[in-house]
Automatic annotation (TrEMBL):
Ranges annotated as spanning the membrane: none
SMART domains documented for this protein: AAA
Name of this protein: ABC transporter ATP-binding protein
InterPro entries hit by this protein: AAA+_ATPase (IPR003593), ABC_transporter-like_ATP-bd (IPR003439), BCAA_Transport_ATP-bd_LivF (IPR052156), P-loop_NTPase (IPR027417)
Domain ABC transporter: 2-231
The species this protein was found in: Sulfitobacter porphyrae
Length: 231
């Protein structure tokens, strides 16, 4: 579904990813794991066209998307929930959701389906995003991404700093998207959460792709977590 083929990128003269490859299939949760600074968020930004590639190619369903401007990437059906959420904080919940809908020309049917998944947001449609709790802001960031009716969903540490009930809601949302055939790349550092939800885990170290392992194998042998994540 989504394929990164030996991509290299970074920030100005500082290269972060080196010939990095990754592939996620429809209906699969692939967790990307590594130490802080390994290049996980950089890979997400490269997929979204937020960083130019100095080498390699990114394709969606066999069609190259590497050369698309950043505003065109979501229109291909790639939803992105970045670390820090990046909401339009001075806008209302309803306005943030409307921006998500407009990206791929979705309407009221999609809006209602998304709000059914996050009923608390329905109660806060006229509330500015900056006044929401951290968990509610994460709900809104997720809801906005789902308004694209994505083929691929990227989540960068979506449960960071959330209380257990919110973490469970995010997990249930990810499971629903997988059941719907969405390809999901999840950056997550909590090992137990990874073992519960991921189908495969891809390890990254110093900008280089390392092992890609079925989660079932990791349940019985956690040495790769110690090697690449340090826990």
């Amino acid at each position: 579904m989504l394929k990164l083929d030996q991509i290299s990128t970074g920030y100005g003269p500082i290269q972060v990813l080196f010939d990095f490859s990754l592939e996620v299939r429809a209906g699969e949760v692939l967790c990307l794991m590594g130490r802080n600074g390994a290049g996980k968020s950089t890979a997400m930004k490269a997929i979204m066209g937020l960083l130019p590639l100095s080498g390699g190619q990114i394709s969606l369903g066999g069609t190259p998307i590497s050369t698309l401007p950043a505003h065109e990437v979501p229109r291909q059906g790639i939803g992105y929930i970045p670390q820090g959420r990046r909401l339009f904080t001075e806008m209302t919940v309803a306005e943030n959701i409307q921006i998500g809908l407009m990206t791929r020309g979705k309407g009221a049917k999609t809006r209602e389906r998304v709000l059914d998944m996050f009923p608390r947001l329905r109660e806060r449609l006229d509330q500015r995003a900056e006044t929401l709790s951290g968990g509610e802001q994460q709900m809104l960031a997720t809801a906005r991404a789902l308004c694209l009716e994505p083929r691929v969903l990227l989540l960068d540490e979506p449960t960071e700093g959330l209380q257990p009930s919110m973490i469970q809601l995010i997990r249930e949302t990810v499971e629903k998207m997988r059941e719907a055939g969405v390809a999901i790349i999840l950056v997550e550092q909590r090992i137990e959460a990874v073992l519960q939800i991921a189908d495969r885990v891809a390890f990254i170290e110093n900008g280089h792709g390392r092992e890609v392992v079925d989660t079932e194998q990791l349940r019985g042998d956690r040495r790769l977590f110690e090697k690449y994540v340090g826990v």
